[in-house]
Design a protein that fits this description.
This protein is mainly alpha-helical. About 65% of the residues lie in helices and about 0% in strands.
């Protein structure tokens, strides 16, 4: 028959499971805070920014369920429940705007997401450093232009007497009213979005490409893989975590189609294809003073965005093992 010998703890120590015992990590966190307080202080301003401009405004969502009148109470005059939700769900104009948002968001995701990947892969194959820097500088430049400038350049280029119509006229084609035709708006918006964002989007992918081990390419060449096979089996798997992360973020902003650019490019003639939820909310809330109705629509859009990004994150975690959280 064997006996178990218990080793007594050293004098002055206390078992973590005993009542009154302090957690082992608390003192370590305090020491780390005292030691690295300068680093932690750098997070103060970003946290204040998100608190003031992101989290505190969420309190205003309560007016989606209360009747709000300008000049009255900040949180509405009286409780109306789901009245404004039922209003926009039964409004045919809202559903037209909702379909336009899906179209523009889907086209932007399909075209604007893969093009930076392709451009980064092409730049990675360029061996002349001067040419690579020139292409990068030219492709990055539109990102630093104001959206007002981008919209102005787009409208001038596509005007009835603009350069594009001059070229069409020299080819014997009648001028096209690009800005006034609803069927052209989606093409114009997506094209200007690609021109403005493609170059800037390559930065993260080029940084991810530098982390791929060169020995993998050497092993692929020894196995007889050509350049296309190396890209498919080595390069793309190497940047897959970056691709998945950016894809999840893009899906999360799927419904938030660029408000400023749409507002600058559209006009009443193009409302059937150009009017999206954000511009509809702007007209309903700011121009028509229907703040509660606009808040209900905005809350609906935010809920859809939350569902999309959560679903995309869970799907990515289960399929490829990469997720944001």
């Amino acid at each position: 028959m064997s006996t178990t010998t218990k080793t007594a703890p050293p004098p002055g120590t206390r078992n973590a499971h005993e009542p009154g015992a302090r957690p082992a990590g608390r003192g370590g966190r305090r020491r780390a805070l005292r030691r690295d307080w300068q680093l932690y202080s750098l997070a103060v301003l970003p946290l204040l920014f998100f608190l003031v401009f992101r989290y505190l405004p969420m309190i205003g969502n309560v007016i989606a369920f209360r009747r709000f009148e300008p000049g009255g109470s900040m949180f509405g005059e009286e409780w109306v429940g789901l009245r404004y939700v039922r209003m926009f769900l039964s409004d045919p104009t809202f559903w037209q705007v909702f379909r336009n948002t899906l179209w523009l968001g889907g086209l932007t995701l399909v075209f604007c997401f893969p093009i930076p990947i392709v451009l980064a892969l092409l730049l990675n194959e360029v061996r002349r450093r001067s040419l690579k820097r020139f292409v990068q500088s030219v492709s990055y430049l539109p990102h630093f232009l104001s959206i007002v400038i981008v919209a102005g350049v787009t409208m001038q280029m596509l005007a009835t007497d603009g350069p594009v119509n001059h070229v069409l006229g020299s080819l014997g084609h009648d001028p096209i009213r690009f800005i006034q035709e609803p069927d052209w708006f989606r093409t114009i918006y997506v094209g200007s979005e690609i021109w403005q964002t493609a170059g800037w989007g390559t930065i993260l992918y080029l940084a991810a490409l530098t982390t791929i081990d060169e020995d993998l390419y050497e092993a692929a060449r020894i196995d007889g893989a050509n350049r296309w096979q190396q890209i498919w089996h080595v390069t793309l798997p190497g940047i897959r975590p970056t691709m998945i992360t950016l894809l999840i973020l893009n899906i999360g902003t799927f419904m938030a189609v660029g408000f400023e650019k749409v507002l600058l490019l559209y006009n009443p003639l193009t409302y059937p294809t150009a009017d999206v939820i954000s511009t509809y909310v702007y007209r309903a809330g700011v121009e028509s003073n229907s703040f509660s109705y606009a808040a209900a629509i905005g809350l609906f859009e935010a809920v859809i965005g939350l569902v999309l990004i959560t679903s995309a994150n869970q799907l990515s975690r289960r399929t490829v093992g990469t997720s944001l959280w």
